[in-house]
Amino acid sequence: MRRLTRKWNQFTAKLLDLPQDVVQDLPRITMIGNVQLYIENHRSVLHFSSELLKLELTKGKLEVTGKQLVIRAIFTEEVFIEGVIDEVKYIP
Question: InterPro entries from the entry (predicted)?
Fold first, then answer.
């Protein structure tokens, strides 16, 4: 059933010219240099410190490591961080 639903969502997205991240609830990550990171479609913040951010995603987790990390804005499904970003890692 899940496979059929996924196929239907992909077909609908192509037909209506919708972005895949919206239809499949995938995270959208926008990074400006290594100093700003904006993440959409996350589920929750699992851990935050000035050197590590862990986010829960629909499928998997996202880890951001760096220095002097600061959350500038956080909303239900969006988070905006600043600092010196060393690594962004997706964990299935």
Answer: Spore_YabP/YqfC, Spore_YqfC, YabP_sf
